[in-house]
Amino acid sequence: MNRVAGTYLLCTLSALGAYDACAQERQTVPATQACVEFNQRVVVLVRNGQVTAADAAIRDALASGADRAQTYCAGFVLNNMAALVSVSGRFAQAEAFAERSFAVLEKVLPADDQLLLRPLQILASTRFEQRKLTKARQAFERMQKIRAETPQDTALVHGMGAALLQAEGKLGEAEAEDLAALYAWEKAGLGETADAASILTALGSLYIDEHRLDDAARVLARTLDVLNHAPDVIPMDRIRLFLLRGVLRAKQGEWRESEEDFSLALSMADQEAKVNGAVLRPLLTSYAIVLRKNHRRHEARAIESRAAALGRDYIAEDVVDVNGLLSERDGVKKK
Fold it and tell me: CA 287 to CA 270: how far, in whole Å?
């Protein structure tokens, strides 16, 4: 899904083409040289951690006297800021930028203009990441009022719809939406990109929810192949995949292989400056459970302590129902 969510596990990241598009600087901006340069300046500031300075530049551009072209440009650059900030896991801040982007663009564009879709998509996905499901659905319903003119647009809408349906437990409907999103990415010639891989990961998560483990294994193998060749992959794409595959392998009783996947995912996460707790907490919790299954209690206790240190902002069961998947009934007893 555009990098937002599969089950609660993937709320990745994205309906999420926008995240990746911005990371790869493919995001559309009004084709004036002044706006392109302004966008580049703001992107550099955000990537250097100078979000306050970037925000100030936007506010200056929108100061009294801004004409329609300046307003139009500022709205798009705000959207790119939202996309970049969301990649780092700062979903509340990304949500605020997406809200502002939509509000600005809504002033200068028709209500059903396709260019409103990107900020709405980021708005829906960042709210989803924060478990603001009612507000996420509100943004999604507004997305549905936008005319989808390209397969990419269609993919974004189906991907976000699938995430919400899966969160609501409507797995059959969610699968249909995921498959429609995947078809749309393929129709756009983007079936081998990270955006398509995010849909495949979402499908794998859904199949685990449905206890269709062979289907999940098949889909996740395909996901890994795409990620190994796609030009637009970010580390979080792989972290989420290996986390999910670790859960799958534990469900299949492949405990050593599961441990390897969780270890790899954690190693990758530790190399990132910031990994959202909605991903890190279930990763640590799952890893500890598998370590105990493999009779490595000392290592498990260390991982459990690290999970506890994260606090209670994110509950593991909200993202991956780890205790339901790997519990005492699986022969894992805490000592």
Answer: 14
Residues 176 and 287 placed together within one structural domain of the fold: no
Per the structure, the count of domains in the chain is 2
Long-range contacts, 321-329 (Cβ 8 Å, 24+) = 321/8, 322/247, 322/282, 322/285, 322/286, 322/289, 323/285, 325/208, 325/247, 325/250, 325/251, 325/286, 326/247, 326/250, 326/286, 326/289, 326/290, 326/293, 327/289
Amino acid letter for position 59? R
* Residue 226 included in any domain: no
Tell me the per-residue pLDDT of 239-275, one tens digit each, with 9 for 90 and over.
999 999 999 999 999 999 999 999 999 999 998 766 6
**80 and 160 assigned to the same domain:** yes
Distances (CA, A) of 280 to 233, 240, 274, 327: 19, 10, 10, 19
Is residue 165, in this structure, part of any structural domain at all?
yes
- Domain containing 150 equals 1-189
Is the pTM higher than 0.70? yes
The answer to whether residues 25 and 79 belong to one domain is yes
Amino acid letter, residue 140: F
Task: Tell me if 200 is assigned to some domain.
Answer: no
Compute mean pLDDT per 10 residues along the chain, 335 residues long, and list them.
Answer: 33 28 40 84 89 90 78 90 84 93 91 90 92 94 90 94 94 96 95 93 94 97 95 88 96 96 94 74 93 96 92 44 44 46
Q: Is 142 exposed, middle or buried (0-12, 13-18, 19+ CB in 10 A)?
A: middle
Classified as helix, coil or strand, 56 is helix
